[in-house]
Amino acid sequence: MLKSKRNKILNICVAISFLTHIFFIVLLQTNPLWFGSSVSAKTEKSVTKRFAILEKISADDLLKEAFAPGKGAQACPSFTPQNESVAQQFNHSPLRMNEPPPTSFSFPAFPMEEFLSMQNTLFPIQSFQLPSMEQFDFFADLPKDLILPSLKKVAVASNFQLLKESVVREIQAPSMTFIQAPSDRSAQFSEISVPPVQVEGAIAKATPTIPMPSLPLLPSLADLQTVNLSDSFDTELTFLPKTDGPGYIFALTLLPHKDLNIAKIRQNIIFLVDRSNSIQRDQLQSTKHAIHRALEELNSDVQFNVIAFDTKVERLFPSFSPQTKEAEAKATRFIDDISLGSLFTYADLYKALFLTIPNQVQEDELYTAILLTDGESLSKKQLQRSLLRDWTIQNNGRVSLYALGITGDTNLASLDAACAMNKGKCLTSTTNRGLKRKLMKLAKNIRSPIAKNVISRAITQNPRAQVNIHLNPSHAPNLYLDESYVILGTTETLDDFILFVQARLKEGWLNIKKSISFTDAKRGGESLQSQWALQNAYRQYELFINDENPSHLAEAKKLLEPFDIQAIQ
Q: Which of 216, 297, 434, 536 fits 443 for a cystine, CB–CB 3.0-4.6 Å?
């Protein structure tokens, strides 16, 4: 009942609206000049009569009466414009050789009096006055130091007069000078005739209204100090056909020469030792021995520090320390005194890693954190998120993160993802005794950094081919003298391409250009397939961190499952 009543009211409203619109349409059609200015009947009759006369006169008669020196010219006085100055005439119409400059211009007279009177009658000009208002001073409320000081006026009138007279003399001269247009503009301009201008006296330079700021000069290629190291690196290429579609995947490895003589970037390494109760006593003891041996592998110019943490954090030095005998002795005592925490302690990875982020990183230095843990505390989703997202955002690539654990430890996948997003990688050992060997090798590989902020590009020689480098510049590892550099990519065809690698050196920039051919490439195996699966899994992890959609984790697990690689749960 209620619905029927509402429909009835709605129909009545629609009908009323329809009738109202029809009424206003009819009203507007019958009274089209409601809002226009009214014209008297006498004026309208006069206008109609004038247009009727004009319609009877042909166009030829109108032109003859307007331009012939007869009745039309007598009825309306001739209009003679003011003579333009010679300089203005010169600007309007370029002069040619042996062509005298125009001295005056005249226009034929034509009857305009009747048309103007008719226009004033039809469209009367209405005048009105603006309301009076006080003068507004824009600069009244501005600070005094923002107002530019008044500039001194430069007297240029006399000099301009000299220039004008000189131009007049040169225009009146019998000879002219021709300037041939540049070759790249010959399609637009054939010749430009310009009189030679000779100014008697120096012309005052106009003062700019606003002083120009001191703009920085762009550096030249020599100032950038780019070093070409193309001949200092060897390349190895392996490839495989894609399993999920057409094309190929490849791994391109750069191998630096051992005799490469170049200034090394200063390295700052900090060791993070997990001493929470989840760490077994044997594993902690092996970790301490591994750090002792790793310190011996570092170069003398490498600075270091050690942090032991659970829920609390203890540092060896307030900041990084050079490798002196006193510093090494102090480090030995500090490492030997590290013991397991109480039963209820856990590893606060975020707090320990937060202390590794420097306030500022110089162009000639690197910071590296080596985390030794079992990753047990990452079972808590909040700590996992803090490591993968919060710390990565705060770090912003300033610290390269490496992790070292035992095969079979839980949450190694989270550690591996965190390292990959922060220019590092996660290493594992099958036994506690193997920790020392793994850590010694890692310290040796990263002790001599060559370049940072690495960017890789590939350009194909075949325009129909397409090569993609799957290496995010913000996650790209640094380039070290004692470690190979692996670049993963895809290609649609096995055509040759050129690889460009650029990076920041200690002083200047590094440039590597290598011609890559698949002729001598090796066919990859399961190792290349697992690397490609991990690369795709890292992208799924990044998507999960951004939107927390569990489908990304399921996709990563599907990618890694055939290779028996642990995925983030």
A: 297
Q: How far apart are CA 299 and CA 480, in angstroms?
A: 13
Which class is 266-447 in CATH?
Answer: alpha beta
Nearest 5°: the CA angle 359, 360, 363 is: 160
DSSP structure string for 521-543:
PEEP-HHHHHHHHHHHHHHHHHH
**Domain boundaries of the chain, sorted by first residue:** 59-92+110-119, 226-260+450-524, 266-447
- pLDDT tens by residue, 167-188: 444 444 444 433 344 444 333 3
Q: What is the DSSP string of 387-404?
A: IIIIIHHHHTTSEEEEEE
Give the pLDDT band of residue 69 (cuts 50, 70, 90): low
CB 443 within 8 A of CB 467: no
Q: Would you place residue 129 in the very low, low, confident or very high pLDDT band (cuts 50, 70, 90)?
A: low
Tally of CB atoms within 10 A around 271: 25
**What is the three-class DSSP state of 491?**
strand
Task: Please state which CATH class domain 226-260+450-524 belongs to.
Answer: mainly beta
Q: 350 with 357: CB under 8 angstroms?
A: no
